[in-house]
Every structure is written in structure tokens, then in C-alpha cells.
Amino acid sequence: MVRTEISEEEHRERIGRVREELERRNLDALYLTSGTSFLYLTGFSYIQTERPAAIIVPVEGEVTFLGPVIEKDHIPLKTRIIKEILTYPDYPGEKHPMDFFAQFLREMKLDKKRMGIDNLAGASARWGYKGPKITQKLPDASFVEAKDLVEDMRLIKSEAEIELLKESAKWCAVATELLQRELKPGVWDPVASLKASLQASQAMKESLGGKYEPQRWTLAPAHAGLRGQVGAMSAIPHAMSIGRVIRKGDVLGTGAGADVGGYSSELERTMVVGKPTEGQRRRFEVMLKAQVEALMTFGPGIKCSEVDRRAAKVFRDKGYGDSLRHHTGHGMGLEGHEPPWLDVGDNTVMQPGMVFSCEPGIYFPLDAGYRHSDTVVVTEDGAEIVTSYPRDLESLTL
Amino acid sequence: MVRTEISEEEHRERIGRVREELERRNLDALYLTSGTSFLYLTGFSYIQTERPAAIIVPVEGEVTFLGPVIEKDHIPLKTRIIKEILTYPDYPGEKHPMDFFAQFLREMKLDKKRMGIDNLAGASARWGYKGPKITQKLPDASFVEAKDLVEDMRLIKSEAEIELLKESAKWCAVATELLQRELKPGVWDPVASLKASLQASQAMKESLGGKYEPQRWTLAPAHAGLRGQVGAMSAIPHAMSIGRVIRKGDVLGTGAGADVGGYSSELERTMVVGKPTEGQRRRFEVMLKAQVEALMTFGPGIKCSEVDRRAAKVFRDKGYGDSLRHHTGHGMGLEGHEPPWLDVGDNTVMQPGMVFSCEPGIYFPLDAGYRHSDTVVVTEDGAEIVTSYPRDLESLTL
């Protein structure tokens, strides 16, 4: 059977590793506000709002949720890792959530202890949240910055995580193929994107079966779209929308993702509407050469910076140094972008289990942009490209 | 013609108000890291990542963007308010973005000045970003917390903002009606949601015309869905997904939004699949009574807390005090949730131009939840409900 989520056993093992690391750092507990850390350690995923929430992992004692009562009934449906759920009525409330948190931590006898914390405010300050810091509310506790603790654990993916990313990659390819069929002159890109995402999500659900559900908040469990990267807007790597429809001669930038157990791979392609011009062909081929060069560089023991340097060298050697707008890629897993970075400034040495996007690109303002993105897993003896979709211009000409 | 965006003139007027407030506070510039503030003040919206970005509004001098080169060509296509664009190659880079920012601020002669800042880190710490604080990099500058400055400006909506929210409300209703047609036993909720969102986005684009485009990153410019609020999962106000399909007897929770100029209204309905049971009918009617009571409370001079108190009293009087999981509503505009809060702890006095969701709800674990949400604008002499969709059980029985 296809794996679609992280097992309870693996979540327990992760909590165990947190506790070991806490002991090594001489800390009594870890205070986490990152929703991604909640999901990584417990399998509980939620919609982060202005309402403060935290998960406390004590070295001794139960994993405890502090947060709004709106999540009270949600948690037991999603995880057995969180054993205690301590809630306040709502934000801002007659008594501020941070006063509740201080009270809860006193009840847990942590108010005079040494805690690692991922955010010294003690709350994820979203959407107009205001409030005192937890550090002010518990003057006898000592708080130590420990944002890196869970983030570092996430750098190297387990076998199960890689399975989920591979399954995700499969649906990225299905979604991209469905999208490619919808892309033609006269179509507005959100319409093509929604059609492809509908079909891909339906197909994924039919294949993965009744129990499958996405773990993050998303309209489309599997999705592919253009995000406005149409014609001149394809020259904007992080375009978000375009008013006009697709026209003959446009360069298009596609992107796809799929939530399998909260993890998503990434697959992007540059496509051309109608017969490519000589200029389009030349720039496409240089981009492809840079991506192939980068893809061949991955492997255990290689520095992340090296991949970026090699891709950039291909562009510079061809005279396209001025057309660079970003580095070669980023780590991925539970978040769209994660460390390490395929960037000249990141000398992290690749290890088996690290997962990256590989997406060198070049951009020509008011004209077009060229970028493919694939998802790459570093293995014991090299690397595996887990996204499988044609890369050549002929296959990507509409 | 229907308004679909905020004019350049209104953005200039907002910048003018920021400068007046800076002078009042004896500050030389405002340092903003919030993407919502970028959009509010300049019309430039972007995808926030691990790459630090800031907008500097000096009392004297040009509005300036500090950030990654990936946004360089994007900004001039979206706004004429930002006059200077100062960029670094990428994150983390051989020279850290915060070192670039310190250099840029020195060049702007702000390194010995007094600046308001919305985030003392000087960067929006997303997705594994790490770095020094800007305050450490510019020891001779003085930084003053000023997160409230733009947030407070956003509390009262202008005529144009209210027009956009009303237009959004119209498409929320269209999307909800299209969704309602798709909801039937055997359907998986993302499939119904994607079908409705596709049709609604198409209809909105056809109506608003060629220039229309969403201002935020979204798969569906107009969307309606269930977000997993099906049967027992409707008892989870912030459910995100459910594996099983819709069945006869289910209570469903719908939600809709539509991006018009970056603004979105909110429309939610409780629906029942098949003839409601006596229990479903009773709970639905109590929820409706609480919403009507709350809706009748809105008006200038009324405290936000009063609306929440009155809605909760309806539930408590009927014996449903234990079924509350959240307060009555929240402000809205550019963000899904904004202050002020319809919460017993928020004594903000309502003023004309404030916009709220009104969504008292009750929840019965492992059974069902009941909540309608409408968008309400406070006017000179009362309040206007801008979302128009049937609220009665007969209309919402499938």
C-alpha cells in the first residue's frame, strides 16, 4: 500500500530525539510556536491565526498543547502524541492568552526552569496579534533561543519522508500533464490551473483511496498552475497573476505541487505557445544546459554552494550573467522552501536524505523567463531526480 | 465601471498619512517588513519567502524597497509609489542580506536616525531564515516599535476599500451558490470546492473584464469550499480536510472568498444533507438566532465586546454555553483576520468604515457544528450586511 502519512511511531521517535537534544543542551523543555514544528513532531496541523498557540515538549512529562479552545476537539482526532490540551477561550479575551500560558507553565512546574524556545515572543505574531512576551510573564524562567533544534532535525529526511515526497512528485507530474493540455491561446491562466488541479486532485484521491486527505490547508490537494507567469510576466520569477489571456508566442512558466502527508515536491516547466523563435530556443537551451549541469553536481559530500556556482557559470559563460534573478534552489519538505540553500553563500555539505529543488533560471524583463524546477533527493552514492516530466523544448511546445 | 483596485492617488494619500504620523512621533522614517503593509501602502504584493525584504518610508526622501533582486523587475510593473529599489543577489548570499540593508540605510543617511519599525528583527523570519537583527547592524540608529502605525490606519476602511469588499461579497455569494449545487452524497469535498471555484472564477473574470487580476497569490480568484467541514468534522471550526465523501445526514460548513484588489469578504453557511433531524433543526435555529441578535447589535458607538456578549448570551440562555469554541467575529480587509475583534476582551468602539465577520457558532464534538458568517460594514447610522445569501434552514437543506 502506498504510504500517505508519517506513522505515530516515527513521530514518537522524533519526540525522543528532541528530548535527547534538550538534555544535551541542559534544557528542561522545548517551547515551540511554529505550526510546521507541531506537524513535524506530532502530526497535528492547524490554521495559524492571531490566536497564540504553543507546544511544550518537556524532558520529563507529557507533550502539551497551549492554545485556543477552537483547537481543543481537533487535536485528539489528529494525534495521540499530544497528551495534555490546555486552552484559553479566545484572543484577546478578558484575560490575555499570554497570562494563561504563564499560568499553564506554572501548573506544569516549568516557571522556574530552563526552556528552549523557537520565538522569544512566545507566540506566532500573525494577523494583528498584540501581546506581551512570555519571557516577561515568567521572569523566573530562563529562555534560550532554540529555533534551530527542530529545523536542524528536518534537514535530513527519513525513508518515510522520502517516500511521501516521491509519491507527491508523481502527482506533480500528473497535474503538470493535465495543465499542459489546458494551455492554449485565449485561456486565462487561473481557469487552466483550476481545471488541471480539479482533475489531478480527483485522480490522486481515486488512486490513494478513501483514507487519503491533505495535511495542510489547501484548496487543491494536487495542483498545477501558472501563477501569472505568462508572456512578459514569465520574466517575473515570483509573479502572482496576470489579467490577460494566453497568446500565441507566449513563454509560460508552470508549477505543480501535491500534499502527501503534509510534504510536497516541486515541478516547474518552461513552455512555449506555438513555434519557438530563434531567441526563445537559444535561451531555453542555455537554461536547460544549466539545469543539467546543476543536476549532475548533486551528491553526498558536495557543497550546496558548488551547485549554485556551476549553474551560474553556465549562464555567465553564455553571456547571460545579467539575466540571473535568484540562486539555484532550496531545500524542501514540510515547507515550500527550507534550508539548506543552493546558494553561493551556503557551504552546507550535502548528505544522503537531503532534498532540494534544482531550478536555475534566466529572465529577460518585459519579454520572458526560462526556468525548470525538479525535486532531487541526495542518496548514498549520488542523487535521484524524483520528478519525472519531459524537459526538452519539443515536448514543451504547445 | 466596477472598481477592482485601489487608485495610485489613494496609495499616495496613505503614504502622506504615514509621514504625518512619523512627524507626530518624532521619527525620521518607517521600516516595514510586513507584506500586507507593502500592499496597503504601495499596491505592491509579493510572495514572502526566507528572503528578507523591507520598505522604507522616510519623512523626507523616496519610498524605497530593500530586498532580493528576484523582485526587482516586478515592482515597477505594480506600483509607481516605490521610487528606489535596492537589492541583494539572494539569501543567504556571500554577504548577508542584513549587511546589505545596513549599507543601504547608510547610503540613505538613515544610519544615525530614529526609525519606527514593525518588527525589531528587521526581516520577516519565514521558512528557516536566520540572521542578525538590523538593530545590531546599525548601532547608531535608534529603532522604535511601530507595528501599530499602519495596522491602525487599516482599521477604518475608505470608500474605495468598502467598494472592493462589496464587490468581493457579490462573488462570495456566486461561489457559494455554485458550491451548493455540487454538494451531494458521494462527493469528496475538494472536488466540489474546485468545481465551484473554477466556475466562480470564470464568471468573475468575465464580469470584471480583461484588466482584472487577483492581487494576492491564490489558485482561485473566487473560491468556495468546505475545508473538511463535513459531518463530524464540521464540529471542528478550523478543520482542514476529511478523507471520506459527503453522506446523507451530514452537517456541512461552507466558506467563500474572492480577491478584489487584494481585499476579500467572507461568507459561510451551515448546510444539511437531506431532511434535518429534530436535533439538527434545533441547533441550527439557535445558531441563527444568535447570529441575528449579533447582526442587530452592530453600529457606530457600540463596543465590539457587546456584540460578542449578546451572541454568547443567546447560546447560554438556550443551554449551549459548553458548545462555544470561539468569539463572534473579527475585522477583515487585506487579511483574513484583522483587529478589532468581536470578543469580550476587545472594547474598541465601532466607527463607520469598520468591517467585521459576524459568525457566532456552536459545536458538538463527534457530531456537528453550526455557524454562518457574514461580512458587516459599520455605517454612519447603523450597519450594512454586504454578503447576501439565504440563512434559513430550508434554503440550506440539500
Description of the molecule:
2 copies of one chain form a homodimer. The mean pLDDT of chain A is 97. In chain A, a hairpin with a 6-residue loop joins strand 10 and strand 11 (338-342). Chain A has 2 domains: 8-154, Creatinase/prolidase N-terminal domain (Creatine Amidinohydrolase, Chain A, domain 1), CATH 3.40.350; 156-385, Creatinase/methionine aminopeptidase superfamily (Creatine Amidinohydrolase, Alpha-Beta Complex), CATH 3.90.230. The first copy, chain A, starts with 7 loop residues before the first helix and ends in a 13-residue tail after the last strand. Chain A contains 10 helices and 16 strands. Chain A has a 6-stranded mixed β-sheet with strand order 4-3-2-1-5-6. Chain A is an alpha+beta fold. Chains A and B meet through helix 6, helix 8 and strand 11 of A and helix 6, helix 8 and strand 11 of B.
